[in-house]
Amino acid sequence: MAFLTKNPTSFPLKVIFFRSFSSHKLVPKRANREFADALRVLNLVTPKKSLIDVENRRSHLQLIEGMLQNDAIKAIFVDDSSLRATETERKVRSSVLMEEQGLGIDVCFLSRALSSCGSHCDLVGGVQYHCLAITAGFIANVYVGSSLISLYGRCALLGDAYRVFDEMPERNIVSWSAIIAAFAQEWRVDMCLELFCEMRGLAALKPNCFTYTSLLSACMGSGALGHGKGAHCQIIHMGFHYYLHIENALIAMYSKCGAIDDALYIFESMWRKDVVTWNSMIAAYAQHGLALEAISLFEEMMNQGVNPDAVTYLGLLSSCRHGGLVKEGQDYLNSMIEHGVQPELDHYSCIVDLLGRAGLLLEARDLIRNMPVCPNAVIWGSLLSSARIHGDVWIGIEAAESRLLFEPGCSATLQQLANLYASVGWWDQVARVRKSLKDKGLKPNPGCSWIEVKSRVHRFKAQDKSNNKMTDILLIMGNLIEHMSSLGLQSKISSEENIWSS
Asked: By its UniProt entry, which InterPro entries does this protein fall under (predicted)?
C-alpha cells in the first residue's frame, strides 16, 4: 500500500482505517487488500500499559477482523455504493483532523457518533468510529461500549453486539438495556428474559422504563403473552405504568398477543394520548379484523384534533383490507393527500391486496402499473397470491415473473411460477424453472407457527414430523374436522399440483 511506512506505529492509524474504508476510487479487491493490511498494521501498535486495556484492544480488533471475514458483511464494505464519500465518512475525516490538530476526540463525541450510525443502520460508518475509539483509547468506556452494542444490534449482528457486551469491563443500566433491545429486535424473548433476570440479580442495578419497553417488544414479537403480563406486573410495581411510551408498548404487546380487550382497557384508561397511542389501537383493531371499530376510532381521533400520519393511514387501510371494504379503502387512500400525508409503498400494497382479495385483479394490476412509486416484491407477491386464489393464471404468471426480478432467489415464487406454467401446459418453462431451482440449490422455507403453554413458547414448522406428539395432534385435527362437518361447515385443504416428483 502506498501510504504504509516501514514503521507502522509512526503513521496515524485512524487515517489508514479511514482511507481503506472511504476511498471511493478503490475497486472492491483492492479495498479488501488494503483493509486487511490496515488490520495487520493495527495489530502492531504498542498497546496501552494496562493489562485490561491490552485485552480490550486485542479483543475488539479480533471482533472487527472476524466481522470482515463474514461474506455477508464483506459485501457491504466492498459494494461500490458504500465506497462513495458519505456524510458519515466526512464526519470521520473531520474527526481525524481534529485529533491530528490536537483538539482531541472525547467520549461524548464518539458515543453520539456511534448512536447516529446505529439509528441509520450505517454499519460502514459505525465500524470506522469503532476503529477510532480503539486508537483514541476509549474502547473500555461504558458509554462507548453501550453505543457499540446498539449499533451492532440494530444492524442485526447479535453475535457481535453480545461479544462487545460480554467483554465490557464495566456495565451500567444503559448497557443492559442496549443488549436486551438488540435481542428484542430479533424477537428473542428467551435471551431477553435471561439477560433481564441476570441484571435483576445485580443489587446495584435497577431496570428503567427503556428496559421494560424492550422486554415488551420481545414478548410482542414472539407472542409470549404470559411473559408480557409478568413484565406488566413489574412495570406497575416499579411505577412506570403511567409513562406514555410504556402504555403505548403495552397496547401493542397485548394486541399482538391476541388480548385485544386488555389493549382496549389500557387505551381507554390513559389520561394522555399521542398519535402513537391512536395508531397502536387502530393497528390493534386492524390486526383482529375489526374494520368498523378501526374506522370509528379514526373518526374519533380526527374529532379530537389529532393529526393522522402515515402510520395512522397504514393501520386504517390494513383494517379495510381485512374487512373487504374496497370503496372505503380507496376513499381513505385518496384522502391522504388532503391531510398532507403522501402515500407510500406500504399504503399502495394494502390497496393492491384489498382489490386482489375482492377479485378485482385487473384493477389491482393497473394500480401497480400507474402508482407513482416503484413496486417491490411484496406488492407483486400480494397480486400473485390473489391470482392463485381466484384462478387467474395469466396475471399470476405476470406477478410471479415480476416478483422474481426483485427476489430471483425466492424458492416459493419459483415453485408457484412452475405450477402456473404447468397449468397452461408450458412444460418447457416448467423445466427451465425446475433447473433454476436445482442449479441454485434452493429449497422451500417452511412456515412456522407458535403457541404459548405455561409461559413457554413452542414453535412448529410445516411438514415437521419430529414432534413426538404428532399422533395426538393429527387425532385432534381429525376430531376438529368432524366437529366442523357436524355443524355444516366444510373444511378445505388447498394443495397445488405436485410437479416436483414427476
From this structure: E_motif, PPR_At4g14850-like_plant, PPR_rpt, TPR-like_helical_dom_sf
